[in-house]
Amino acid sequence: MKRLVAYTSMLVCGFASLSEAQDLDPDASEAAARAALAVLSVAATPNETLSSLSFLSASGNASNLRYTQLRGGFKPLDNGLYLEGLIAYQNYNPVLIFPEIASDSEVDVTWSSLAATVGVGWEQLIGNDWYIRPAVHLSLGHVTTDAVFSNFPLFPGRAGDSSVVDGNLYAFGAGGSLSIFREAQFGRWEAEFRLRQSFLEFYPINEPQADDARANSNQTTLFSRYRYPLDNVKLLGRPSKLVLDGGVVLYHGDSAMVLDTDWLATAGIGIEVDTTRIGIPAVQAGRIMLNGIVADSFSGFSVGFGIRF
């Protein structure tokens, strides 16, 4: 956790009573806001290695991560216009050591983030079943921080609570992404491959103490999924498919710093069910996946659900 300690240790300078908030070192306050924005940026960026509806749980020696996303995209018209959206909730609880307080004291900090992100893109065939999709994105989010030890003047605490301080920071983000993807057939196997680069920058909303704080989410995602028909396994009266997938998210910049990892990898197995007999408009199949999660600083699993149009 060396990088994370170095990054967030600046927050200690911002721990003070509310009456001392006016004397807060501006650099410390800005660092606190930047850390909060960096945590929020991870939640607000679509994670394409997970299913459309996913529940992730991971932990390590000094951190716990819980993440839920509802993500989807579609083409509303018979052209290249593509719309996508994300709603995500994240709870991140690293246990940090702050030398400024005491050399061997652990500080329990919980970051809770709620974010909504929308994107508008254009899909274009570039040859051999490969497509390219540039998109622009806007995001709104809210991050709260519970810090044990003292008040967090950047985020005003609740009246009458002297042990744990709840704080609120609202933020907006803007940026873009570039995706390259392909769907192919290899014998009876159906395959899809995706490469995506996303960059969003986040700024606090109406938070004077944050000064010029900003943080970015800079992620590279590589992902592939394979389907194989299971002729003898029938669900809902229709044959099902075995699904295998795997991917890796490469974190750069602020998101890598706050998560204390440069990468996160997933590998999963699941089953896809033909839902055409149910009669849901435009929906061809439903999918359930179980994925293993591994990174530098934690490991865990996710359960995901998806639909195919």
Q: Count of DSSP E strands?
A: 14
**Strand order in the largest sheet:** 1-2-3-5-7-8-9-10-11-12-13-14
**What is the chain-wise order of helices and strands?**
HHEEEEEEEEEEEHEEE
Number of helices: 3
Radius of gyration: 21 Å
Structural class: mainly beta
The portion of residues forming beta strands comes to over 45%
Q: Major beta sheet, specifics?
A: 12 strands, antiparallel, barrel
Shape: globular
The whole-number mean of residue pLDDT values reads 80
The N- and C-terminal alpha carbons lie at a distance of 42 Å
Proportion of residues in helical segments = 10-25%
Regions with little confidence, pLDDT below 50 for 5+ residues:
1-27, 97-103, 148-166
Query: What is the subunit arrangement here?
Result: single chain
